[in-house]
Amino acid sequence: MTQLILALDVSGRTEALRIGRQCAPHIDAIKVGYPLVLSAGLTIARDLAATGLPLIADFKVADIPNTNRLIAEQVFSSGFSAIICHGFPGSDSAEACIESAHDHDGECYLVAEMSHPGAEEFFHGGVAEHIAELAVTLGADGIIAPATRPDRVRLLRGIVRRKKIYSPGVGAQGGDAAIVAGLVDGIIVGRQIYLSPDPRSAAAEYGPFRQ
To answer: Could you report the per-residue pLDDT of 120-164, keeping only the tens digit for each?
Structure first.
């Protein structure tokens, strides 16, 4: 089954809870990033817990090991079930997030490659492949790989094998769910759903890809 993960990048608590409740029957997890947390605080995780869905903290953590660990501790203490961090700061920094996640029975995903056009400037040339290898070596739960570049997802799948791949970029960025859903464990959709006049119906349209 390919999961549908809602990237809830709105900046208001009331709006976030409304959309989260509406979409809950049609999605498998909610990804929360800085736009929402900076406006509503980490306590938004406790509010969204009412949906009964796993909550992923997409903070793309990228600092020294001690700071990474402190951030991850705050994330999991607030009720999140997974965290996304960068691998490029090095294995010790990534490992700090992974260890903290597993200490809290949570999950940690390394960003192997981002979905926007500019990602090709720095995540190519072997960098994404190295981060994917790092995810395997360190025991991360999976990686983030771009739905906007299915060929890259196929390449990275060959490295991480059975580890999970969550793939952003479906919808507004041009990623095609029909192409990428069979390659990954979860497709991440944001604006196509939360900017819709009817988020519930927009989320439901992705139902066939969750088979």
So the answer is: 999 999 999 999 999 999 999 999 999 999 999 999 999 999 999
Q: Tell if the pTM clears 0.90, that is, is over it.
A: yes
8 A C-beta contact, residue 33 and residue 56: no
Secondary element (H or E) of residue 4: strand 3-7
Q: Is 31 among the catalytic positions?
A: no
Q: Pick the catalytic residue: 31, 60, 163, 164?
A: 60
Q: Identify whether the C-beta of residue 49 lies closer than 8 Å to the C-beta of residue 79.
A: yes
Helix ranges (H only) for the chain are: 13-23, 34-40, 44-48, 65-77, 91-103, 127-138, 150-160, 177-180, 191-194, 199-204
